[in-house]
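Example record

The entry below shows one chain as it appears in the dataset: sequence first, then structure tokens.
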Amino acid sequence: MTKVALITGITGQDGTYISKLLLDKGYVVHGIKRESSTRTEDKDKEQKNTNLHFHFCDMTDYSKLLRIIQEIRPDEIYNLAAQSNVQTSFDRPEYTAEINALGTLRLLEAIRTLGLKKKTKFFQASTGDLFGNSLEIPQNENTPFHPRNPYAVSKLYAYWIAINYREAYDMFVCNGILFNHESPIRPENFVTRKITRAAVRIKKGFQEKLYLGNLNAKRDWGFAGDYVEAMWLMLQQDKPDDYVIATGETRSVQELVEFAFREVSIELEWEGEGLEKKGRNAVTGEILVEVDPRFYRPLESSLLVGNPSKAREKLGWIPEVNFEELVKMMVKDDLEFVKC
């Protein structure tokens, strides 16, 4: 029989990629999006594909979530809805917890209340930020957590409540501990897209400088299209489990900047350290990149790099897109977006 999936946060980056993957596999896909979202492209997608259906609901509305799940009785739920911007989580910690932590609880409780424990498999999008200030490098499924921002703290609650429901009610619940993953549809309030789009704008003369925070911060960056494949694979296993999803490689923000500018034929030379660090056009000497203390976070995570060996061995998952290809992909999209 045709499988039915419910995706929260379907209009976000991961929701967009997982919905396409599931539709290509013949699923009937239902997506939850916020009441304020009235994007024309979503209506067009729904009209063109009879297997795609959208529902307006907020993750704070338990009764509406309950009715949606009761109506469609999904075989799989992918909980991707989140307030996922780290800086915003410092500015709006209560809202972040309401969506990320309690939103997950509401979905799990709806499954239990409706008697779908044996039918509905549940994927919880967790994050590599759980490890925060970990002394163990690289991080795996057994590495102790030490979250360093309200976003990660809210995700830590979601991680453990998912495990609690799995163990207490024998539900098929999986946590995907997803390290940073990007794509051409990543919005500009994330540093990766801010960098690639700024490189293109500077090249085309629409922007003079790029201002960033900690250039030495290092992350494990992968491609969102690869990561949603891992999400799906988790729910196809015989038993539920938790997996680190990462590339196993780490790059600094400075390296990301260098790759992005190189893709628009600008080589950078660096001078100074810390707040005084600057990136100059190697040919013209013009300063194109500067550090702005406003973009520093109250607490910085240490070196975050995931060990995906468990996912590789048990799921057969291997990421296909490397760091350089990811940056090229994003810059190429920005070149189309930023017209002359």
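Notes for this example: The chain is about 40% helix and 20% strand. The domain at 2-181+221-248+302-320 is CATH 3.40.50.720 (Rossmann fold).
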